[in-house]
User: Fold these one by one.
Assistant:
Number 1:
Amino acid sequence: MKTVFFGSDEFAIEPLELLHGSIHEVVLVVGRPDRPAGRGLAPSRTPLVKRALELGLEVLQPESLTEAELRETLGAGWEAGVVVAYGGLIPGWLLQMPPAGFVNLHPSLLPRYRGAAPVERALMNGASITGVTTIIMDERLDSGDILMHREVPINDDDTAGTLGNRLSHLGAQVLLETLDGIESGKLVAVHQEEDKATYAPAVSQADALISWEDTAERIERKVRALNPTPGAFTYFRGKRLKIWEAKVTDVPPEDEPGTIMNMGKEGFLANTASNCIRVVTVQPEGRQRMSAGEYSRGQRLLVAERFTSGPQA
């Protein structure tokens, strides 16, 4: 089956690689445009575009998916569109172009966690199971008929990075099986149960800010959910501090939420609304990641100092 592949971030790389090496042909990869990045703001390719070029695939990076610009460029002859973490809506005119329609690989068990951040939201909510789903796309957000899905457990120490990698690996296999099933005519799509739909909006800066009035469990889940990006953060001595690893303890709180206590070589404790949480790995503003112990010694932290919700708090 001849396909046009739409993708952007790391999650799409393994599905593209497996599809490229299969009996199905990737005739074109459509990626997001290069964007300024880094201190020098030099144009930077998305991970998917970079990998597609390494594989020798033809790549198109339109600013928008407008019919006037793309219909003739895409042409005829391709049979299915494939969308994996593209980061943009596919318009109706484009959905209707290939005879087999558009297949989307989504990292959740639809209809749960429709939207841009299903992995992060599942971790923040303390879900124990997630998975991947392939659907035939329609013009609504992640609402198309389900083709296949597969479950995976969420481990207690999973971050968005580790869970996302497992889902990408599993999703690549499910995507290939889906295209095989479409081509053979043996795969039957089923409607999603709308009354069970939940949503996973993109993570905002407000979502990433740690509230020490939360329980230790909720804070620890947020830290894992936002690792490797964008990172959960707090403020200390007026500067932003990202927290990359933290562990819930059985130590009861002894002071106001956010107050630091029990500093040691392996980090320090912070009070929350429930038990204390041990801060393990941090990243000060403008610096690299480091152990909380190293940060504590370098900053000469004092017991009873507090993390805050803003630079002036």
Number 2:
Amino acid sequence: MKKSIIIITLAAQSILVYGQNAAPANWFNLDPKINKVNGVSTERTYNELLAGKSSQKVIVAVIDGGTDVVHEDLKRLIWINMREIPNNKIDDDNNGYVDDINGWNFIGGQQQNVAEDNLEVTRLYKQLKARYEKVDTNSLDGVEKDNYAFYKKVKATYTKGYSEYAMYNNIYTSLEKGVTSLSTNLGKDSLSMAEFKSYKPVDMNESMAHNSISKSFSASKKNYVVISKFSKGLQGAKEQISKFVDYHYNLDFDSRNIVGDNYEVATERFYGNNKVSEPNGEHGTHVAGIIAADRNNGLGIKGVSDQAEIMVLRVVPDGDERDKDVANAIRYAVDNGAKVINMSFGKAFSPYKNVVDEAVLYALSKDVLLVHAAGNDHKNLEIENNYPNDKVTNYNASNWIEVGASSWKNKKLIPADFSNYGKQSVDVFAPGVDINSCIPDNKYESFNGTSMASPVTAGVAAVLRSYYPALSAAEVKEIIMQSAIKVKGKVLIPGTKKKVKMNDLCVSGGIVNLYEAVKLAEVKIQNKK
């Protein structure tokens, strides 16, 4: 699932002054020495090291929720399956997927596409509840005792999550009622802060809304209040919360019937449709833009790679992705020429992990690099799980890079406060805060997340694989790790006030850097001769 933190905010609060709270434009491509910001040195690399060098196209698969293939900054860079004749309803290349022109949608059916889905914990709890809710625990043998213990863990996780979001849903419903009442009783939308604070709420709902509005505008250092602005932010937050209650944690909701596969057969491969752009294309479009947005069209932003072609693979709904779909997307990408795969998603449970592991090993056998987002829950992945991961058949896959998110800020604030981390479980950090990129309908927006850090790294990998095609996937990973800019001093552990060295948060102890990676790649290529 593409997780984000839900907060009530105002549009005005995101308009900040660079030098205080706002990131500089294009910061993830800037250079630590020249620009004094912890980007990955993309612009410097093209200007100083890659100018005039030969390169070749490299296919980067974006496994996500869909990508806008006609976006002004991406349309020239979307992968086209030249072996397939568009829209003739024939599998021309005999790969099992009809009219797969730009990729494939593994969560689509004949009539519609999956939009919302459960979290994996909900699916697991529903399945296990039927078996263990009323079981006589005295009758359980060794294996069944272990299964029952797992059920109890799943139930506890589900119950905690559902209760939390049900509580938020009730709070936001009360806030909505309070805001509506305030607006009616005050008789106007815009008031001075003094005038607003002098108003006496008539009930609990109004009191809650009055307090929240006062705090929000005070925090943004405004001396006025605009109720409609708060209401708009509240509505967006309420919609997000409602999805958790209505879909993600709803035991009675199941959208898989749309797909029409036999879901119990985890190895089934050929299902879905070719509609790769909808309905949840915002996240995947943003990811694709970071990797490959057109660097030469004078529009929007500049992606990291100037030679990437984006293959679109849709597996992530508004909810948790399913292992079966992830495995099939990896296999599709490998079989259709991708050399780098970006995966900006993750979840806490993986009931068919073995199927995903087999796909990861298949990618390894075909020299394909997998880049994965570490997650946004400020968790230590040494003790908590985030799937999928590189731990396959008792060893770590050498073609896998796990990426945490870094900020443009300096010193102790370099790790993003939301990023997952792990001394051995996360390989490297990369820019993932205030990242401006593409969203559908030729628009652009700034997002936060390891979901952004992963494609920054995938873009760096794509540059290495396009300019130095003799490098293997494992060598590209090794170069990215070894060339990472080491962070000096101590930094804050995400989500805490405690300071540690950066190598306590990731294996490399540093931030991805294309400039240093290209210099190291040159050395490795020369040594191969």
Number 3:
Amino acid sequence: MSKVLVIPDVHLKPWMFDQAKEIMVNTDIERAVCVGDLVDDWNCEEEVDLYEKTLKKAIDFAKNYPSSLWCYGNHDLSYLWDQYDHPGYSVSASDVVCDMLETLRDTLESPDNIGIIHKVDNTLFSHAGLSYEFVEQEFPQEMDIECMIDMINDFGVEELWEVNSPIWVRPQDWTLAKGMFPDDLFQVVGHTPVSEVFEQDNMITVDTFSTYSNGQPIGNREFCWVDTVKKTWGYFE
């Protein structure tokens, strides 16, 4: 596959998909991967129109690029799994979110194009990352990585709504004793806001579009590409 566009955590910024489409049109990138959290942002619980606009932009992007891959984030799954007490959860927008996430899935070339984790060549994409702690907790030793990914994508709230899961873990805090699994694959994650793409061993964190509670940007709001074979990355010029 080689180079792909990475779409970081969106959090109700529909204009991100306009910028992503511009990149797809004006570069040689042929595929995009979104690492999740399309919905919710500070104090937006009653802005149902913004939820609709954001998800419509996501669906339109998927129509143009049906081979794109999408990772569910914890905010997205809080609606699908009825986690009403999740920070930012909008009761007013809950039906819209569930219906439009289903439409997004149906728009893609395969339902498998949206899930918890995707492997492309030598690279894993997920919302938060696959850790050794989670693997040792959930899987027998020596399980094939492809089988493991298939199982993770079938997991539900019981397995994934916990701190070390691929939708919640925060390896950026260096609190993981054994690091990220496996050593020979590159990982691309969002979930934790960073000022610029943050490199750690075999992983990068790309959530550069999130904001503080006052709406000020935390990061540089730049998209990046990832070479899924060479396990390298860079910003678009």
Number 4:
Amino acid sequence: MSFSKSKSVDLKYATKWMFYFVLIGIIAGFGAVLFHYLCGLGMHYFLDMMAGYRPGNPAGEHLLLPHTDTPFNQWMLLILPALGGVISGWLVYTFAPEAEGHGTDAAIDAYHHKGGMIRARIPIIKTIASTITLTTGGSGGREGPIAQIGAGFGSFLATKFNLSERERRIMMAAGIGAGVGSIFRAPLAGALFAAEVLYRDPDFESEVIIPAGISSVVAYCIFCLVFGWGSLFDSPAFKFENPLELGPYIVLAGVLVVTGALYVKVFYGIIDLFRKLKVPNHIKPAIGGLCTGIIGFFLPYTLAFGYGLAQDAIFNKVSISVLLALAIGKIFTTAFSIGSGGSGGVFGPSVVIGGAMGGAVGKVFNMLMPTVVTQPGAFVIVGMAGFFTAVSNTPISTIIFVSEMTNSYHLLLPSLLVCSLCYLLAKRWTIFENQVKARVDSPAHAGEFMMDILQTMKVENLEHLIKKVRVVNEDMPFSQFKKIFQTTKQHYFPVMNGKGEFVGIFSSTDIREVIFTSHLEELVVMKDIMISGLITTTMSEDLNAVLHKLTQKNIDALPVVREDNPKAFEGLIYRRDIINHYNYHIKKIRE
């Protein structure tokens, strides 16, 4: 192929995939716009009009409709989440049971175990159910449904164009990045998050980053064209200038790890509790909503999103007692809202919980060490990053997330310290139970990872496992071989000619016809039985090629011959020894 033709093919290939990823970004972007409008309308007609409750917004979000004159009704807050649970429970369990819980975890499961396949109806049901759950007072985040809108469309597009499982997984992950990056106005973090959240270890799905980046940028631009540019949260010009402040940040990391462990334990404890509950699944979100409403009756600010209070905490406008009540209360309202079968994301509540705990720790140290900790609001931002790292095992994308969401890049150093400590201390817990440890543990990469590993190994690496077996002469009568066969457990028999050259091979299966026909024993020689069309290997061949030959011919052993002389027999290499060696090698990698 000429250079110009090659260049033309590359351009055509790149253009095709660019089209796919831009299309995913457009759908995810408009999906984020639609969901944001639905949430705004729901907050207006449910919480505002029915209960007179008007939670604050972050600086980057504005009211879609003006507030009503409805007086605050605490009793309505008690029952409103339960009403939302009735509707969302009926929707989810009637039309798409997979849409229950937090959507990002379902997308992770689809990536690893379902070839990136998501039913087309799931994003639609998830969007409606999440809107109802969140705007009737349920605690949750917006990233779950948005991630599933993007992921669902990526999966649908790949299926429509008959793409491979690998390509469908990539397009699905690009949809996750686009959805999350747009709704939180953090396109870079959205792309990194889609690649990092799949694994518990510090591992990235590298082939996802560029596609997710393209889709995320497109979705972000569409969202901001409608709702305005800028970050989700506003923050003062925080600066890290005193190394002594690292001490309080280390304490913050410890507090966040303990809080994160509590969050995960409570979340999955309540999920288990509701699974064991002997009532129809349709009713469970209503019961969870009622429990949420009871907490909200006493602590209204733990309902819905909670971003407004996190925004106030950044500017040091919230007391320690309220911050602690917000953090602990939101752990339970989130667990009851989503763990009972309601629909919503877990990133949003994590940001609020982490910010509240960070703000409380910052204010305490501000009182104890006012010359060292001069800006408690900085601890809110670092707390957001550290806490989500502790519960999600995504340190890199989370640091970028919080920096983009708050437009605060001067806290990268303390954020890196806190996120690193939180990751190391909290590796055993994760809010995303469908994460796998690393690429080697993902069913999505089982075949290709095995192939990659085997390609790095040569037959010479298994020289100690090459079996020296008994050979037979091509002129040996079958009657004489029969005596040998009765005294050996050998299954494959190499055949040599009079010059000692390797000319064929046969197995115990090949002698079946002759062994049961006594009158042929003296007439048949081993040359008549052997297979002369030899498939062999050499010391320099990689084990992937060897395994391919074994599988192709459905045999258990392959003759090894010398590189410079194909008729010089060295021994047999067995399929089981190759697989055992591979398993041993993988075990060492994992350790």
